[in-house]
Amino acid sequence: MVSIANETVASQYGRISRSLDPKELIPLRFVGFGVSLLDVWAASTPVLIGAMLLCFSLGFGLVMPSLDTSVVGLVSSQFRASMLGVLTSMLWLGQTVGPITFTGIVSTAFDEPVTGYRFLLLCCGMASLVGGVLVLLAFGRR
């Protein structure tokens, strides 16, 4: 379901990008990520957790084309393929290392895994939400 949601939104990026600039979409999605993570933190049933993770994946489907568009616009044509390769490598690295790090922190810093995961979801959700809002505000001042 996560991949289908991701692909569905990414396939509609052209329509979405007509309304908002990629520089606005990226921080806006971090706000969405933060809200989704906070909702996962607060969810009381597996169905609600699944729904929030689905929302998270919708945001990921929106942020990926925005990142690609931003990277392509920032570098000269001779470096575009290389930079997109670096971007893809960093995303895969994050997807690999992130869960391992998250689990490592929980297993070493908390006696109860559930308490640790909930605490980290709260912290990551707040950081994503606040960071996204601050970047949106910074772009609004320009």
TrEMBL record:
It comes from the Archaea. Keywords: Membrane, Transmembrane, Transmembrane helix. The keyword Transmembrane applies. InterPro entries: MFS_trans_sf. The keyword Ligase does not apply. Coiled coil: none annotated. The chain crosses the membrane at residues 40-63, 84-110, 116-139. This is Major facilitator superfamily (MFS) profile domain-containing protein. It comes from Natrinema saccharevitans.
